[in-house]
Amino acid sequence: MARVELESPVTGVVWKVTTPPGTSVIVGDTVVIVESMKMEIPIEATEVGMVTEVLVSEGDQVSEDDPVALLETA
Questions:
Q1: Residue 42, domain extent
Q2: 72: in domain
Q3: What is the pLDDT of residue 10?
Q4: 59: left (phi > 0), else alpha (psi -120 to 50), else beta?
Q5: How far apart are CA 48 and CA 31, in angstroms?
Q6: How many domains would you assign to the chain?
Q7: Which of 13, 34, 60, 65 has the highest CB neighbour number within 10 Å of its CB?
Q8: Which residue, 59, 74, 72, is CA-closest to 21?
């Protein structure tokens, strides 16, 4: 098993955490949604596994490439 870091693709504000720690995910599942310039950008799981930690909270400011969640791959 490996750890995978999900990163924000843009600078913005965390609008919603959609997948709490302990949740199993597949590729394409939305984990966090970031709002930037009035657009909602989903940050999706890149591998099959489980969300082990969410590193941000709703309302947090994030920069491009900031880690937002950790996955443990299956």
A1: 10-62
A2: no
A3: 98
A4: left
A5: 12
A6: 1
A7: 34
A8: 72
